[in-house]
C-alpha cells in the first residue's frame, strides 16, 4: 500500500526580513544605526541621522500597548472583529501589530508579548507572521 496523501505545504514568512529564528525562538528583526537609533522594520539608511552604518538586531519580545483599536470591517487576511495597534517594545522601537487577545485585556499600557505563528493561509500554505498577546506581569518585588 502506498501513501498518496499530499504532505502539508511548508509555511511561508510574511516577510523574510522582519523575523529572526534562533535556538531561543522567534524574534522581530530590527536595525540599529551607529547613532543608536533602532528601526522596525529594518532599514538600510537611518531615518534619524541618514547614516548607513546599520546592523541587524533582535528586538525585545515584550512591550506595552501604546494604541489599539478593534476593526469591524473585513480585510484580506482577517475576519472581523480583529484588533490592531502599536506596541512600545521594552527598550526598543514602537511597532505596528495585530493583537490576539480578549477585549478585556486590550487596553493602553497593557503588557504584551510577541507570538510568531501562522495567522492565515494563502493557496493552502500557512503564512507565518507576528502578533502580540497579553500576559500577566509578575508583581514587582
Can you put this structure into words, describing what you see?
- There is one protein chain.
- Helix content is 0%, strand content 48%.
- It is mainly beta.
- It has 2 domains: 16-59; 60-136, Beta Barrel (OB fold (Dihydrolipoamide Acetyltransferase, E2P)), CATH 2.40.50.
- The model has no long low-confidence stretch (mean pLDDT 89).
Rounded mean pLDDT is 89
Task: Quickly count the domains.
Answer: 2
- DSSP helix fraction: under 10%
- Find the count of extended strands (DSSP E, 2+ residues): 10
How is the main sheet built? 6 strands, mixed
Question: Helices and strands: which structural class?
Answer: mainly beta
What is CATH's topology name of the largest domain? OB fold (Dihydrolipoamide Acetyltransferase, E2P)
Order of helices and strands: EEEEEEEEEE
* Basic shape: globular
The second-level CATH architecture of the largest domain is Beta Barrel
| Residue share in β-strands | over 45%
The CATH class of the largest domain is Mainly Beta
Q: Report how far apart the termini are.
A: 62 Å
Unreliable segments of 5+ consecutive residues: none
Radius of gyration: 18 Å
Give the strand line-up of the largest sheet: 1-10-9-6-7-8
Amino acid at each position: 500500500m502506498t501513501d498518496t496523501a499530499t504532505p502539508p505545504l511548508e509555511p511561508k514568512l510574511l516577510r523574510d526580513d522582519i523575523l529572526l529564528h534562533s535556538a531561543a525562538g522567534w524574534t522581530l528583526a530590527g536595525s540599529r544605526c551607529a547613532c543608536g537609533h533602532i528601526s522596525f522594520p529594518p532599514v538600510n539608511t537611518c531615518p534619524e541621522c541618514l547614516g548607513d552604518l546599520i546592523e541587524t538586531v533582535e528586538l525585545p519580545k515584550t512591550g506595552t500597548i501604546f494604541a489599539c483599536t478593534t476593526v469591524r470591517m473585513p480585510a484580506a487576511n482577517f475576519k472581523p472583529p480583529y484588533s490592531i495597534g502599536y506596541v512600545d517594545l521594552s527598550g526598543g522601537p514602537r511597532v505596528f501589530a495585530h493583537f490576539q487577545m480578549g477585549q478585556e485585556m486590550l487596553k493602553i499600557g497593557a503588557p504584551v508579548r510577541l507570538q510568531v505563528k501562522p495567522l492565515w493561509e494563502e493557496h493552502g500554505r500557512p503564512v507565518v507572521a507576528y502578533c502580540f498577546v497579553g500576559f500577566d506581569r509578575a508583581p514587582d518585588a
